[in-house]
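Ticket #4471: structure export looks truncated?
Reporter: QA, pipeline team
Priority: medium

Steps to reproduce: submit the single chain below to the structure queue and open the exported record.
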Amino acid sequence: MVGQDDLPDFPTPIVMSDHGGKSKWTVSIPPSYDFPLSVKEYGDMCKKCKEVAARVRDMRHRTQILDQNLLSQDAPNDPYFIDVAEAQKTGLLPDVAAEWPSKGQGHDGDLVGENKDSLVEKPVCESSMTFIMETADAGIGHTIMQLWTFYGLAKRQGRAFFIDDSRWAYGKYTDIFQAPPVPLCRPPPRHEMIPCPPRARHLVVTSETAKEMWAGSISKPHSDFRAQDEQGLRELFELAHEGYRALWDLNNNDAQYVSKRVKEIRDKTTVGNGNPNNGVVVGVHVRHGDCHPTEYQYHGTYIPMEIIANAAQEVIDSKHNGTGVDGGDDELAKRKSFIVLASDDPTVYDAEDFKGSMRAQEQIRLASKQEVHKAIPDRHVMHHFEDEAFGWEGGFFAAMFWNLGLSSMSASNAATAKNKQLAPSAEALRLRSYVGRAYLMDLAVLADASDTVICTVSAMGCRLLAVMMGWERAMEHHNWINVDGPYGWTGLTF
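Actual output as written to the record:
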């Protein structure tokens, strides 16, 4: 057993003795610590968990449990790990919440949708997974793919699912999405919510531990989310799709706009006059900025827009060749077909290759340098500050994101590791939220309005679009087309 005076005053896995004097291990987090811990603290703890688990097995003279398949429902439990609540119940740990000599109770964090003031107290969840939105990645796409995938995994494992947005770079989750489904149970005391081992009763997942957990734990060959067979690929895809279906609810204003925009786009394809076919919509997603293609010859630059535009035209032609009433091409339907375009680079919309295309959405747009200097700014355009001499030409770069909300005097220091740990201003969060909303509305319109989507798989937005379309529509009907080399869909990559 471990006495309260023997417990470390910092979060760490610990070795202890059971009532028979045999070694066990658990994870100790002082309740005086704020929840959630930092992403780095959780990541470091996962590494220590592996070391401590190995040490206990050595002490018990047992061979190591293989990493593979630890995340599946029938995964073997580490017989020497004991959950925090169980350790307290059996007396192996003191009643941490009541007896721990602490400096007070830490902050409980911000679990989205949790109603702490409810008059009806729910029972504590039997098991849970809490996804921490905080990440050092400026892009929103990887976080969303992780969120969806781990939601799917939590449901497969029978866990309640919670989201914490305490330190999300894009601000409050409910400023962008509607609150997620609320479990019929409440989260446990925060010191019971731990990042390891993967079979812990109440698991915390972060951008840092996602890699550690999944890449080292899921059965091969799917360790890097690049399954080599269709069955494994579909399994990963369906996990993400389950999360998408449960969590994809944009805030009311954005959802209403997207619905109207999709209808507007689809109405433009109507031929009428008894024509057997309507036009087709080809959704095109172009990612520039700091995301470069997987295809080697374009690795240091971007896929030429001509290649993307030609692929879109081929789709339009193939849909209508030989579909006319006389067996010829349906020229009327072709003329009602067009590209719907979304890009992080405002110059793409003016490219000759995409002349006649339609923007996916105009609710929030990233401004070009020309738009920044307009005498009367467009209220729909996401501007940099007027004293800056550049716009979003070239696309989304991480440094530009971290600079949002800063004056040009301080912007040069914004992307340092130290400054990224500082709490952003309300203005910075407001602008970041606009960027996230613009990105997600682009995806929503492309997924819902397009007959076929063309994109580059190197961009996470491209992979998200496939998930949003669903396996049958995207893969079986070949309506999701990658123009970035001979690669198929992948989920998360690290």
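Status: closed, not a bug. The export was complete when the record was re-opened. Leaving a note from the reviewer for reference: The first strand starts at residue 12 and ends at 17.
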